């Protein structure tokens, strides 16, 4: 995923006192409490994709507590009856994963919705708060939040402070006009002779430039373009000035859904691991190291996978191509030096 979303460096240059002082404001700000998204759900039901502003198909999922899994919870969390979930989507959000919904107040998206599904399996009330990316980690560190669901990439650097329970592939992808016949097919060789746009400073830019260098050694060309904004990139795509846009896969899925009824619909032309060819990158629920939460969260995710509700959640957000077959606790992450 893009550096500015899932691989942004952990907070630096802010004193602990300042960070904790600002955390309450960050967590309570825009969309801080997601109860508005859950009040109409009946017991045993979690509705995903509500007020999604077209990013998802609203879907009611039947999910109840699994006693054998909730029994694994740390005693303090079980007694509290609440799972404190933090999402690092301030100030602007990143649809379809986490953003303020069509009612202009509800924190919605695939990430907070999945946190609510996990909480249901654990028999806990979800308390979902929004924060800046940096303050999300401060909230986990300080105990103000139990777990982060915010498109957080599993990295070996982050494992020094956090435990992970994986639940989605960390993929980047190619967006092309629907009428285009080009597909990536997992082969960088297919990029020869193409013009591809990518955002500056992102992980996918790093991957694309590596492919460009490989093709150059083979006597082939790949033209890489950068634009000042996503709107400018999309105009270049519809205007035929680029063949494809290489971006975070969830963003591609979102824009494909948004353009479906337009004169210039787009489609996905293939995905690639955000960690590169040697490792499948993973997005993971993030808890404080040794908090005892990663195992029950992973078991809750695996229950959702087995029950089919996980697949329905992904399908609601057009993210089925990011499905994992199992949730793992602290799986191999993005290597040190590449985090």
TrEMBL record:
Residues 1-28 form the signal peptide. Gene3D superfamilies: Periplasmic binding protein-like II (3.40.190.10). It holds the Pfam family SBP_bac_3. Keywords: Signal. Residues 84-321 form the Solute-binding protein family 3/N-terminal domain. The keyword Signal applies. InterPro entries: Solute-binding_3/MltF_N, TAT_signal. PANTHER family: AMINO-ACID-BINDING PROTEIN YXEM-RELATED, MEMBRANE-BOUND LYTIC MUREIN TRANSGLYCOSYLASE F. This is Amino acid ABC transporter, substrate-binding protein.
């Amino acid at each position: 995923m893009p550096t500015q979303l899932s691989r942004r460096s952990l907070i630096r240059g802010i004193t602990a006192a300042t960070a904790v002082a600002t955390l309450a404001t960050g967590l309570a700000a825009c969309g801080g409490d997601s109860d508005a998204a859950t009040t109409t759900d009946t017991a045993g039901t979690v509705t995903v994709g509500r007020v999604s502003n077209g990013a998802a198909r609203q879907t009611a999922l039947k999910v109840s507590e699994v006693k054998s899994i909730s029994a694994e919870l740390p005693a303090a969390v079980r007694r509290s009856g609440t799972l404190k979930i933090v999402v690092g989507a301030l100030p602007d959000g990143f649809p379809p994963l986490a953003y303020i919904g069509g009612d202009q107040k509800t924190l919605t998206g695939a990430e907070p919705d999945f946190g609510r599904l996990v909480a249901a399996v654990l028999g806990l009330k979800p308390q979902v708060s929004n924060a800046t990316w940096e303050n999300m980690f401060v909230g986990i560190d300080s105990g103000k939040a139990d777990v982060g669901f915010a498109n957080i990439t599993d990295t070996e650097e982050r494992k020094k402070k956090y435990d992970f329970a994986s639940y989605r592939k960390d993929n980047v992808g190619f967006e092309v006009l629907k009428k285009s016949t080009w597909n990536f097919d997992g082969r960088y060789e297919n990029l020869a002779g193409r013009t591809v746009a990518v955002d500056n400073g992102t992980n996918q830019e790093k991957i694309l430039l590596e492919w460009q260098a490989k093709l150059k050694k083979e006597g082939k060309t790949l033209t890489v373009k950068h634009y000042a904004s996503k709107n400018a990139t999309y105009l270049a795509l519809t205007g035929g000035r680029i063949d494809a846009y290489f971006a975070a896969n969830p963003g591609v899925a979102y824009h494909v859904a948004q353009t479906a009824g337009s004169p210039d619909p787009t489609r996905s032309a293939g995905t690639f691991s955000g960690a590169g060819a040697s490792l499948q990158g993973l997005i993971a629920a993030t808890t404080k190291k040794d908090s005892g939460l990663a195992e029950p969260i992973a078991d809750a995710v695996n229950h959702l996978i087995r029950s089919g509700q996980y697949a329905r959640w992904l399908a609601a957000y057009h993210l089925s191509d990011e499905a994992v077959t199992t949730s793992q606790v602290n799986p191999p992450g993005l290597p040190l030096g590449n985090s």
